[in-house]
C-alpha cells in the first residue's frame, strides 16, 4: 500500500501544504494542521513505546475532542488499528468490547468526558500538550484474524447482543471521505460542525476524514446542545450534518428564543441521516434553514455512504437518493414484491467482521453486502428504505438493538419476559418502548426497573417508556409477535407512564 493511501498521511500532507490553517477547533483551542501533525507524531511515538505496532488494536474510549482525533490518526501512524468506542458505554458493555478486541493499549479521553474518567479506573493519567487522557497497557492474547490494511474497527452490538467489530480499511475510509467531501463540495474555507460522534462511522468517515481531505476546519463538540449549535451556526459554521432529533431540538430552541428562522448565518449545506424523513417535517426544517435538507443512507458495514440526495429546496422527495458514484445497489426481492433486501457492492464495503469469519461470509456474498434493510427504487432511480429487517431502532443517531435492551430488562427479578420496539415521535427520532410481562402490573415498580436498566445500558439505549402488562401477544410456539404490540396496547400508549 502506498503512503498516500493511508489516512494518517492526510495530516502530514496538510501540514506541509497549509501548516498555519486551522484544522480543529475544540472549545477555546484552535489547532493548526502543523500542530496537529506534531501531536499525531508524538502520540504515535507514545503508542509505539507502549508496544502497539502492526495489527495491534488501540481502544479509544472517547467523546468528541482534539484528543480523540489525535489518537485516531496516531494509531494509524504507529501502524496499529484504531478502535474508537463511545465513552457513554456502561462498564459491562465496555468489558465485552475489550474482551473481544483484545487491545494492546486503551486510551480514555478523561479530560473531556466524566464518563471516560470513571471508566478509566486505575489507568495512568497523561497530558502531552493536546489534552488530558488516561492510558492503560494490556497484554492481548494472540488473535487469528486477517487485519492486513485494516485502519479502524468500529463496534456495533448486533442483534444478538454480542459485540461485532466492523473492520474498515484505509481504502474504505479514503473512498468514503472523498465521497463525502465531494458531494458537499467541501473546501478550505468551510467549517464543519462535528457533533456526530467520532466513534460512529458517520462522524468518523463523513466528518473527520472528509474535513481533513478537503482541508476544511472541523469544529468539534463533545455533547449536543441546541444553544451551542445555534451559536456555532451564527459564528461561521458552513456545513452541518446531523440527525433529525438535532434539527428538531434546534428549531424548538430557536423558536423559544424568538427566532423561528435561521437568518444571517454562513451555513450553506445541511443534511439529516440515520432516520427516515417525514415530508411535513422536512418542509418545516427547510423553511427554518432556508436551505434544502439533504438525506442519505448508509451503515457501519458500508463505511457510512451508500446513497444520498441532491435536491433543491422544496423538493418533496423523502427518499435516500440515488446510489453514489462507484457504489452499486440492487434489491433482492421475491418475484412480484415491491420491496426487498438492499444489497450493495463497491469500495465502501467493509473488509469483514473482526474474529468472525462465519458472520462475514453470511453478510458478504459474492462481493455483495446484505444490509438487512428493506428497500425499493422509484421510477427516478431513487432508493427508498421501507423497513429494517433486523428491527433496528435508531435513537439520536445511535443504533439500538432490541435484544440487548430486552436482555438487560429480563435480568430483573420481577420481569417474566419483555419485548422492545421503536416508535417514531414528533421530533422525527425514535422512542424505545418496553412492554414488560410481570405478575402484577398494577403493583410493578417501573421506576425501579428504569434504575436497574440505567446501570446496564448506555443512556441512548434505555427505554423511553415502560409498560407493565399481564401477557404479551404470542404465537403458539411462544414467539412474541412484536408487530401486534402497538395494536394490543393502543389504550396504554396514550397514558402518561414512566
Automatic annotation (TrEMBL):
The keyword Ligase applies. Keywords: Ligase, Membrane, Transmembrane, Transmembrane helix. GO terms for molecular function: medium-chain fatty acid-CoA ligase activity. InterPro entries: AMP-bd_C (IPR025110), AMP-bd_C_sf (IPR045851), AMP-binding_CS (IPR020845), AMP-dep_synth/lig_dom (IPR000873), ANL_N_sf (IPR042099). It comes from the Bacteria. Residues 15-354 form the AMP-dependent synthetase/ligase domain. Pfam families: AMP-binding, AMP-binding_C. The keyword Transmembrane applies. One of its GO terms (biological process) is fatty acid metabolic process. Residues 404-479 form the AMP-binding enzyme C-terminal domain. The chain crosses the membrane at residues 192-213. Gene3D superfamilies: 3.30.300.30, N-terminal domain of ligase-like. Belongs to the ATP-dependent AMP-binding enzyme family. This is Acyl-CoA synthetase (AMP-forming)/AMP-acid ligase II.
Amino acid at each position: 500500500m502506498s503512503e498516500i493511501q493511508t489516512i494518517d498521511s492526510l495530516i502530514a500532507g496538510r501540514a506541509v501544504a497549509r501548516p498555519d490553517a486551522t484544522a480543529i477547533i475544540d472549545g477555546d483551542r484552535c489547532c493548526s494542521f502543523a500542530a496537529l501533525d506534531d501531536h499525531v507524531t508524538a502520540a504515535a511515538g507514545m503508542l509505539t513505546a507502549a508496544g502497539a505496532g502492526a495489527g495491534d488494536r488501540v481502544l479509544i474510549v472517547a467523546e468528541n475532542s482534539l484528543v480523540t482525533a489525535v489518537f485516531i490518526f496516531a494509531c494509524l501512524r504507529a501502524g496499529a488499528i484504531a478502535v474508537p468506542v463511545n465513552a457513554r458505554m456502561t462498564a459491562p458493555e465496555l468489558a465485552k468490547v475489550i474482551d473481544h478486541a483484545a487491545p494492546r493499549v486503551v486510551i480514555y479521553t478523561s479530560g473531556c468526558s466524566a464518563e471516560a474518567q470513571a471508566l478509566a479506573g486505575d489507568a495512568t493519567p497523561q497530558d502531552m500538550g493536546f489534552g488530558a487522557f488516561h492510558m492503560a497497557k494490556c497484554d492481548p492474547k494472540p488473535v487469528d484474524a486477517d487485519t492486513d490494511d485494516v485502519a479502524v474497527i468500529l463496534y456495533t452490538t448486533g442483534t444478538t447482543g454480542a459485540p461485532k467489530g466492523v473492520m474498515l480499511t484505509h481504502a474504505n475510509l479514503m473512498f468514503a471521505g472523498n465521497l463525502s467531501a465531494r458531494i458537499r463540495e467541501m473546501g478550505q474555507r468551510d467549517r464543519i460542525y462535528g457533533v456526530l460522534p467520532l466513534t460512529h462511522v458517520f462522524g468518523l468517515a463523513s466528518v473527520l476524514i472528509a474535513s481533513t481531505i478537503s482541508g476544511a476546519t472541523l469544529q468539534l463538540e463533545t455533547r449536543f446542545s441546541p444553544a451551542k449549535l445555534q451559536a456555532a451556526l451564527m459564528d461561521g459554521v458552513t456545513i452541518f450534518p446531523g440527525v433529525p432529533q438535532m434539527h428538531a431540538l434546534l428549531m424548538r430552541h430557536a423558536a423559544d428564543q424568538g427566532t423561528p428562522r435561521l437568518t444571517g448565518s454562513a451555513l450553506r449545506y445541511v443534511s439529516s441521516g440515520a432516520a427516515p424523513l417525514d415530508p411535513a417535517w422536512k418542509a418545516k426544517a427547510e423553511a427554518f434553514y432556508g436551505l434544502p435538507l439533504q438525506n442519505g443512507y448508509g451503515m457501519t458495514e458500508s463505511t457510512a455512504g451508500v446513497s444520498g440526495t441532491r435536491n433543491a429546496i422544496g423538493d418533496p422527495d423523502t427518499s435516500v437518493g440515488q446510489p453514489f458514484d462507484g457504489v452499486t445497489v440492487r434489491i433482492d426481492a421475491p418475484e412480484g414484491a415491491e420491496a426487498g433486501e438492499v444489497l450493495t457492492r463497491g469500495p465502501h464495503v467493509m473488509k469483514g467482521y473482526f474474529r468472525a469469519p462465519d458472520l462475514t461470509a453470511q453478510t458478504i456474498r459474492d462481493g455483495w453486502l446484505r444490509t438487512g434493510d428493506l428497500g425499493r427504487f422509484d421510477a427516478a432511480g431513487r432508493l427508498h428504505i421501507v423497513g429494517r429487517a433486523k428491527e433496528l431502532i435508531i435513537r439520536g443517531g445511535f443504533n439500538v438493538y432490541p435484544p440487548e435492551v430486552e436482555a438487560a430488562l429480563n435480568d430483573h427479578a420481577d420481569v417474566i419476559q419483555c419485548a422492545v420496539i421503536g416508535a417514531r415521535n414528533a421530533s422525527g427520532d425514535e422512542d424505545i418502548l418496553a412492554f414488560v410481562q410481570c405478575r402484577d402490573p398494577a403493583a410493578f415498580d417501573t421506576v425501579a426497573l428504569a434504575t436497574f436498566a440505567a446501570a446496564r445500558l448506555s443512556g441512548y439505549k434505555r427505554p423511553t417508556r415502560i409498560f407493565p402488562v399481564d401477557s404479551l401477544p404470542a404465537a403458539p410456539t411462544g414467539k412474541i409477535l412484536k408487530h401486534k404490540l402497538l395494536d394490543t396496547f393502543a389504550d396504554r400508549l396514550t397514558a402518561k407512564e414512566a
